[in-house]
Amino acid sequence: MLYERWLAVAQEGGSELALHDLAADRRWTFAQLQEVCESAPSLPGVPLALPTGANVEFVLCVLRAWRAGRIVCPLEPGQAPPSDLAGLPTNCVHLKTTSATTGAPRCIAFTASQLIADAANIVSTMGLRPDWPNLGVISLGHSYGFSNLVLPLLLHGIPLILGDSPLPETVRRAATTAPFITLPGVPALWRAWVDAQAIPHNVKLAISAGAPLSEKLESQIFSRSGIKVHNFYGSSECGGIAYDRTETPRSDAACVGTPLENVQLSIADDGCIAVRGPAVGLTYWPQPEGRLRDGCFHTSDLAEISNGQVFLRGRASDQINVAGRKIAPELIERVLASHPSVADCLVFGVPSEGPERGEKVVACVVTRSSVSESELKTFVSERSPSWQAPREWWFVSSLQTNERGKLSRAEWRERFLARQRCDSRTASD
Question: Hey, which of 28, 40, 138, 274 has its CA 20 to 30 A from 257?
Fold first, then answer.
C-alpha cells in the first residue's frame, strides 16, 4: 500500500525536484529518486529496516523497506534497535520508538493505513504545498520529523531540502535554494534563529512542535520578522492532534489550536485528552497498555476544550502536590517567564522534608540580568497564591533539552536531587 502510493507520487512528480541534500550538494527529482530505489540491491533477509541519519540514505532505506515489505523502525545515531520482534501485530509496517516515563524506551506499532492517515491529516490541515518545500533541520528519526518531512515527501510529493544542521547559518543558506519554504522547528531552535536574526524572509509556513511554544517567543518572532509560527501539538502514539491555524500570535500559550482534520478529541474522566481517529497507532510493544487500543489514545495531558480550541493544563504526572493542593508547574512557569530578568525557566516538584507536606516547588531559572531569589519569590507571590511560589531556586546557565529536543522535568528533577545529595555529602565531610 505504501510503496504503491509512492509509485503514483513519483510518476506524477517526474522531473520536479524531490530531494536536495545540502551536505552532499546533490539533488534528485522524483523520477531519479525512484530510479535509485529500484536499482538498489534488495534489503538483507531481515524483517526490520533501520533508517538513521539526515541524508538521502534515510529516505531510500524507507522506500526499499516499503518495496520489500519490511517493517520500518527509524533510529537516532547510536540508538539500539529492537532485539526481538516476537508478538508484533501481523499488520504492523512501522515502529516508532518512544521514551517511557520509567524504564527502557519502548515501541509503538502502526499499520500502513495509520501512517497514510497521519500524513494526510498534516498535509491538509497545515496546507503543505509542493511549491513550498520543507526545510528539514529536525530529526528524521523522531515522530515529528518523520510525519512532517518524510511522509509528506513520499506520500504527497512535498519536496524536502535536507540541512546538515539546525545552525542559523545553515538555515540561511538552505533557504536560498528555493523561492519559498516551509520551516518546521522546535521552540529552542526558533529561539536561536530569532536571536541570530536568521529566520529567512521567504518562509511561507512556520511550524513549532515538540515542546510548548511561549506566547512571548511567538510574539517576538512575529514582531521582528512578520512570520507567524504555528504551534503544533502531537504525540508519537497518534501523530498530529491539534494545530494553531490563526495568523496572529496567541495571547495564551496554553492554547495549542484546534483538532487536526479527521481527529476527534474529548476529555476523559481524569481530565486528560483522549484522541480518536484513523491515525492512532495499534498498540505499545512489547508490552501493550490500555491507554492505546481500539483506535483511541488516552494521553497524560490535562486539558480543556473550549469553543473548539484545545488548552493544555499540564501533565498528570507533572502535577505538584503541595500540602494536599495540586498545581500544574506550567502555571508557575508562565508567571516566572513574564519577569523581565527571566530568560527561561522550568518548574517541578521534589519530596518535601516532612511526608505530610507532600512536595515542594523547585524553579530552575536562566536569567538575562541580575535578579535575586527573594525578588522572584515576591514576584510570583504577588501574581498567584503564595503557596505556589517556589521554595527552592536553582540558577543555571541554560536549560538543555534531551535527545528528543524536549525539556524533561523528570531528568531535571533527578539532576536537582543528585546535586542535593552531593551537597549533603560535602557538608557532612
Answer: 138
CA distances to 7, 53, 69 from 3, rounded to whole Å, are 6, 21, 9
191 phi and psi angles, rounded to 5 deg: -65, -45
List, for residues 11-70, the tens digit of each pLDDT value.
999 999 999 999 999 999 999 999 999 987 777 677 899 999 999 999 999 999 999 999
Amino acid at 72: V
The grid cell for 403 is 535527545
Candidates 274, 271, 372, 375; CA nearest to 328 is 271
CATH 3.30.300.30 positions along the chain are 319-428
Domain 2-313 listed as CATH 3.30.1130.10: no
Q: In sequence order, which residues have a C-beta less than 8 Å from that of residue 62 and are 6 or more positions away?
A: 49, 51, 72, 74, 150, 154
Name which CATH class applies to 319-428.
Answer: alpha beta
Beta-carbon-side half-sphere exposure of residue 133 (alpha carbons within 13 Å): 21
Q: Return the closest-CA partner of residue 76 out of 167, 161, 146.
A: 146
Kindly calculate the radius of gyration of the chain based on its CA atoms and give it in whole angstroms: 23
Take residue 322 and report the three cell numbers written for it. 503541595
Q: How many residues does the chain have?
A: 429
Please tell me the pTM assigned to this model.
0.81
DSSP state of 388: G
Cis omega (within 30 of 0) on the bond before 74?
A: no
Given a contact cutoff of 8 angstroms between Cβ atoms, the answer to whether 366 and 347 are in contact is no
Q: Could you tell me where in the chain the CATH 3.40.50.12780 domains are found?
A: 2-313
